[in-house]
Amino acid sequence: MGIVPELSLPAGSRASSPEARAVMRANRRRDTTPELALRKLLYHRGLRYRVDASPIQKIRRKADIVFSADQVAVFVDGCFWHGCEVHHRPAVKNADFWRQKIAANQTRDRETNDALRSAGWMVIRVWEHEDPIAAADRIEQAIMRLRETRTPSGEARGRRTAREAPKPPRRTMISREGNPDLAIRGPAGGSSNHGSKR
Ligand SMILES: [Zn+2]
After folding, report:
1. Number of domains in the chain
2. Whole-model pTM?
3. pLDDT at 93
């Protein structure tokens, strides 16, 4: 379906072997039934999202459901490929091969989580076996909580300025060192013990 970015990657850039690439592609199968059910629920709750998209350009990993403005990335993980403890049954044939593949997927999942989180994103992972309604609840609640703190409206405005608070002190420090600022402040500052600012 459409472009498969992994195919256009230079050999060995991410996946070191054709098998690993095949696993990753299979791994990234989109529009699975649980995922569609979840998306439908989220849509009906008024949430809008991108599907099968990279949350961040520099991180070449796609999430299944991406809320760009809220910086929330949702992954719907298949029980087999991601090694769900409830449903993953170890393969009988080529057991070692598959164990390694699943382990590699899990490592990759953790790396993706770390990369996104350190870029300020929230990562939500949903098992394909999870009840879509419960999953939708979880996602919706997380987004609403984020919006309370992040959205630049009403109360949040105050918080926003509070978050930028580190800047003014820095400026003050610079101006204290800089002569021009001292000169400007000088006259007023002389008697400022009365607290003209208060
Ligand atoms: Zn499962």
Report:
1. 2
2. 0.62
3. 87
